[in-house]
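To make this tangible, we now present a fold written out as tokens:
***
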Amino acid sequence: MTNIPQRKNVIRYQNTIDIPKIDDKAVIISAKEYWTRDENLLIVRGVDSSEVTLNSIITKRIIIKSLTQVLVKSDTGLIDEEWDELLLEKGACVQFQFVEGNWYILSSDGLKMS
């Protein structure tokens, strides 16, 4: 028997997944008028009604939870290519995304009555 050296190749696989870090920027406001900033979640409460303008320069995606009556307006373009504004009743929650000059509703739990 001859001693022939044998080589064993070991391949190491890295099975880690880099989970993207999402800066969770949630803001609660009680203002009659508000322009969105870089927040991901906006909760509106504490006033009879509020007017929120979606700022397409800074904000690209946002969820708005209304605990009061909220009139959502676009700074440019239309909402779902149809509306200049959208009225959210108390309890509604809507996610908006800015794409190619318009705001789109990605998800909504519907408009709720108080």
Summary: The CA atoms of residues 17 and 99 lie 28 Å apart.
